[in-house]
Amino acid sequence: MSYCWAEIDLNAILFNLKKIREIVGDNVKIMAIVKADAYGHGLEEVAKQISSKENVYFGVSSLQEGIRLREEGIDEPVVNLLPPLPQDIREMVHWGITPIITNDGIAKLIDDECKRQGKILPVHIKIDTGMGRLGIRPESAVDFVLKIREYGNLFLEGIYTHFASADTDKEFTEYQLKVFLTTLKKLEEKGIKFPLRHSANSSAILNFSSSHLDMVRPGIALYGVNPSPYNSVKLKPAMSVKAKVIQVKELPAGHSISYGRTHILSRNTRVAVIGIGYAQGLLRALSNKGSVLINGKRAPILGIICMDQCVIDVTDSGEVRVGDEAVIMGKQDAEEITAWELANLSGTIPYELLTAFGHQLPRRYKFSEQ
Ligand SMILES: *Cc1c(COP(=O)(O)O)cnc(C)c1O
To answer: What is the pLDDT of residue 370?
Structure first.
């Protein structure tokens, strides 16, 4: 029995996938982004669930994740969104993991290896239209692609770009899309057409239908969190985080709580200790700020969050006993603590919280009623 855990609702992920399908229509392909262990939700479990319902591509962030999917029997196309390391190319070709291409030298190595193994590998070319991270600059794109086209064992399946601020900056997103479409047009003038042109992450899926093109790449929306807190599309959060009460006691007014004595009790207080701390993803930045749900009501976090424990005020929470369940993120009765609430309080974004919780907590899977 663990003191804390993440509960993953696989039906919520299917619900969100269906929502995304409704938004993009039937003619747009979906690359389900399952990188970073499916944003902490569990790569194999999530991918198997999705694969049983929808025909998708999968996007991962390492060769190792791609191989894990193959070993799980997933035979859909899997794209590694980070460029391959030279030492990984042999395995990558062996397992049929689709690379992104951002460098001619690596493309040549991949082509050589494909020839050695007698295979044709699909590849996706990445264009940097403004993110300033991976990808070929638009002005070099035509020459670059013409060169890559010479490699006989690479199939130019996809070309894509990534938005820097689809959640916050409409103008820049439209600019990036325009640069991308202009680049595609120049390529077409040279007779080069890619079957899969893609650009939309979750924000762009929800806010910029003109960016959907041939394929969309939802990540955070699949897991039920809106990429920006202002969006009204109703998604179902798939991850909840829970912890057990491990002690309850009364402390007098004036007593201090936890390391550094940052909280001094202003009244006689019933405190509970719960078995979750920053080593399990409950960010220390939530010290003295956050609250948890217990008996369907909010109980404030008192003092500094420790490595594996924290203290909460349960004076107004009714009867609380050792073994009771506290909700750190998610719903309890009518109350809910969302990933956005925790992110805003701790100065981060839901992505970081989901991965922090998901990578550090044991996971329990469930299927909610639809
Ligand atoms: C992570 C990632 C996505 C998904 O982004 P969300 O904002 O989670 O939807 C899409 N495309 C690329 C290239 C990514 O790295």
So the answer is: 67
CB 261 within 8 A of CB 243: no
Give the whole-angstrom CA distance, residue 291 versus residue 171. Answer: 37
**CA angle 161–164–169, rounded 5-degree value:** 125
Q: Are 28 and 216 in contact (CB under 8 A)?
A: yes
Residue pLDDT, tens place only, 115-143 = 999 999 999 999 999 999 999 999 999 99
Q: Among 35, 126, 242, 244, which one carries the catalytic annotation?
A: 35
Q: Answer for the pair 268, 252: CB distance below 8 angstroms, yes or no.
A: yes
Compute the distance between CA of residue 267 and CA of residue 134 in angstroms, rounded to an integer. 55
Across the range 83-105, mean pLDDT stands at 97
Pocket test of ligand 1: the residue of 23, 33, 81 to mutate, having most ligand atoms within 8 Å of its CB, is: 33
Which tokens is 258 given? 């936890």
Quick one: average pLDDT of 4-22? 98
259 a catalytic residue? yes
Average model confidence (pLDDT) for the chain? 97
User: Ligand 1 within 6 A of 220 CB?
Assistant: yes
pLDDT for res 251: 98
Q: Is the pLDDT of residue 369 over 90?
A: no
For ligand 1, atom 15, name the residue with the nearest CA: 81
Distance 238 CA to ligand 1 centre (A): 17
Does the beta carbon of 81 lie inside 6 Å of ligand 1?
yes
Q: How far is CA 124 from CA 74, 133, 171, 220, in A?
A: 20, 16, 26, 22
What pLDDT, on the 0 to 100 scale, is given for residue 30? Answer: 98
* 124, 167, 176, 217, best to mutate for ligand 1 pocket (most atoms within 8 Å of CB): 217
> Domains in the chain and their CATH numbers?
10-223 (3.20.20.10), 239-366 (2.40.37.10)
- What digits encode the pLDDT tens for the residues 332-364? 999 999 999 999 999 999 999 999 999 999 999
269 CA distance to ligand 1 centroid (A)?
Answer: 45
pLDDT tens profile 69-83: 999 999 999 999 999
Checking DSSP bridges between strand 269-274 and strand 239-251, what pairing results, if any? antiparallel
